Amino acid sequence: MNQPASAYFIEDRHDPNETHTLAVLVQNEPGVLARVIGLFSGRGYNIESLTVSETEAQKHLSRITIVTTGTPMVIEQIKHQLDRMIPVYRVVDMTLTRRSIERELAMVKVRGQGEHRVEALRLADAFRARVIDATTESFVFEITGNTDKINQFIDLMRPLGLVEVSRTGVAAIGRGPEGM
Amino acid sequence: MSDKSHDPNQMTGAAMIVRALIDHGVTDIFGYPGGAVLPIYDEIFQQSEVQHILVRHEQGAGHAAEGYARSTGKPGVALVTSGPGATNMVTPLTDALMDSIPLVCISGQVPTHLIGNDAFQECDTVGITRPCTKHNWLVRDVNDLAKVLHEAFYVATSGRPGPVLVDVPKDVQFATGTYHPPRKSDVHRSYAPRVKGDATQIRKAVALLASAKRPVIYSGGGVINSGPEATKLLRELVEVTGFPITSTLMGLGAYPASGKNWLGMLGMHGTYEANMTMHDCDVMLCVGARFDDRITGRVDAFSPGSKKIHIDIDPSSINKNIRVDVPIIGDCGNVLGDILQVFKAEAKKPDIKSWWQQIAQWRARNSLYYKKSNDVILPQHAIQSLFEATRGKDTYITTEVGQHQMWAAQFYGFEEPHRWMTSGGLGTMGYGLPAAVGVQVAHPDSLVIDIAGDASVQMTMQEMSTAVQYELPIKIFILNNQYMGMVRQWQQLLHGNRLSHSYSEALPDFVKLAEAYGAVGLQVHKPADLDGAIKEMISVKRPVLFDCRVAALENCFPMIPSGKAHNEMLLPEQANDEATAKAFAGGKALV
Q1: Domains in chain B, number
Q2: Per residue in A7-64, pLDDT tens?
Q3: Range of the domain at A104
Q4: Distance (Å, rounded) from C-alpha B246 to C-alpha A49?
Q5: pLDDT of A71-92, one tens digit each?
Q6: Which residues of A touch B586 (CB under 8 A)?
Q7: Which residues of B are marked as active site?
Q8: Which stretches in chain B have pLDDT values below 50?
Q9: Residue A1: is its pLDDT beyond 70?
Q10: Mutation for A interface: B194, B316, B317, B591, most A CBs within 10 A
């Protein structure tokens, strides 16, 4: 049997890591984001992506969407640890519901001339990316989609003169008529 | 304006704080003044309902409040100033978080317009204490203060109890606003701890218990936190089922040490019978404990053949370290009541005679054995003598952290909850002396003893001065072996006997030190003098420093070497060099 590296080591090492998207509904009050982020860093959890904004101003509610990775046991822990925080209303594992839509927005700056420029525009069209800024030697594209689509688009832009990328991180919502 | 001046609920922020304390039934607080809390101290000066105990260091205030809380079941309250006052509270707050102790800390802050300016005695108190409190608040508007204070008391004491901190800038303390008494709407709607256990899960648990052949009940501090009803129900459950019971360090006293089903404490320095019972059981009922690494030992070899039931009010405790089969989220007392009801109605006491026979064989190994001496006092013997001398008395025990703490847990028998105050999760050296101060404030006529080590006790020794000032007759019973005993034990076992910085050189003369503080100093060297000296210590109605000189090189056994399983305990008679080297092989990297 493998000896665990430490008695504190809680993960079952044989379980593979999974990626989960969590939607966290919180009271929008000072420090709430610091609490959530502090939980992740303090307990050694991963944050792949984090998006936060107030969603219901009159009720002071914010929605935080976190993409995290870990073994099933760790993911379970993360949800419980989030849920027990005082200003947290609900934690929903969007990945487990299997009925959620995830979107991300990216702005991609590409610099180039001649054939590269034409190719970039052609690919942008195929990916339904919009041109939101242009000069004679550059474009800024706006692209929306799931993380994979955006990664793929960025990879394609790289040889065509990719300058920089700004991404929002993942936002997620459930399908169907029911709210969270 | 003129109307408002007659409104009794119009008051300053500082007055609101004192008023809220009174409204929450607080009679004693522990604190230390400073610039950013002067308005609050001014209010304290002008009233007599809340007694303020002046400590000598803010850490002392925190631990005293913890001792007060754990011995009464009520929240402990500490009041400290901004900057260093707040940072000195970090240790007690973390300690209370780890051990689920209800603590309300009020800290002063620099005026709101100076926050962020690196003002004198400014620090980001809510930022620093965020990970070491259950929740904390910075109050920027005096009209929010009443609500926040009431919520603070509710959060600290409800669900899984814990420490909270309210940071109040000085201008908010001076400002006038509207106070209101506690009301339900003061609490976040998002905070609603679950108290009642799920009925289906409870039925599953009862079915498992009723079919058990080799059961064990493993209880923890949650039972004590839940209140006297939970303790009563736990004892009844043991009676009704006839099951053996063990407990964590935090849970001692929930089931009486003299009870016939008692196995002793489990875990790293638990008894052989408790750990073997845990390892070989087929059904485990964990009540209000959290499968901490000091309990489980090696996790992949922890009680491999058992079905596990886990009752806990905190869902994040479930499946954190050990996967369980029947989790029940709820308050221990509430769930135990439901389990008992279903068990009594639908199940009968399982026949576990052969299990008890097996346990009797483990007990016969006498794992707490030590060899007494006529020449030197063995630390175990000192604790046993102390226990005998205080048996039947109204006694509260606190400890520091180290070997003496483990010996106290092994050799002092606790019959009731709330009688045992020790830093379990965080392992804070220096906890015991200020905790004893807090316990004595709560129970002025009781016998309060801090079982201490010579190294730990020096960490918060200054609180002797507090004890003398308030005529708190605490007894500091120092097992003086002139070492940081537990550090040395690990160096002997894991680091080739290289005793790096674990020898207490230049120890003070504790008798003279006691006298310098205006307390009583006693010293004993010989086993023959021990009982008489303990008697004298108990009869003195003043604070006592008791310097009990014990065998210097005695180590704490039995022991589960770190990284090993419950059935790989090292017993005292086996602890020769060779066996020790073998037992600890590979465990060096572990804590």
Answers
A1: 3
A2: 444 444 568 999 999 999 999 999 999 999 999 999 999 999 999 999 999 999 999 9
A3: 100-174
A4: 44
A5: 999 999 999 999 999 999 999 9
A6: 3
A7: 58, 120-121, 170, 486
A8: 1
A9: no
A10: B316
Is the distance from CB of B541 to CB of B554 less than 8 angstroms?
Answer: no
Beta-bridged to residue B178, according to DSSP, are B10
Among A33, A63, A97, the domain boundary falls at: A97
Q: Does residue A8 lie within any of the structural domains?
A: no
Tell me the nearest-neighbour CA distance from B298 into chain A, angstroms.
6
Report in angstroms the alpha-carbon separations of A65 from A103, A146, B191: 11, 14, 20
Find how far residue A30's CA is from the centre of its chain: 22
User: Is A27 in contact with B296 (Cβ distance < 8 A)?
Assistant: no
Q: Tokens 């997620």 identify what position?
A: A172
- Residue A118 and residue A166 share a domain: yes
CATH code: domain of residue B326: 3.40.50.1220
The answer to whether B575 and B306 are in contact (CB under 8 A) is: no
Structural domain ending residue among the three candidates B136, B164, B186: B186
Residues from chain B contacting residue A5 (CB–CB below 8 Å): 589
ipTM of the complex: 0.91
Chain A residues close to B127, C-beta within 8 Å? 31, 34
Tokens of B344: 């009594």
The answer to whether B41 and B86 have CB atoms below 8 angstroms apart is no
* Residue ending a domain, choose from A97, A125, A153: A97
Count structural domains, chain A. Answer: 2
Beta partners for A172? A102
Token pair 């991404």 in the structure block, residue? A167
Structural domain for B252, as ranges:
199-363
pLDDT tens-digit series, residues B105-137: 999 999 999 999 999 999 999 999 999 999 999
> Are the beta carbons of B297 and A7 separated by less than 8 Å?
yes
pLDDT tens digits, one per residue of B402-451: 999 999 999 999 999 999 999 999 999 999 999 999 999 999 999 999 99
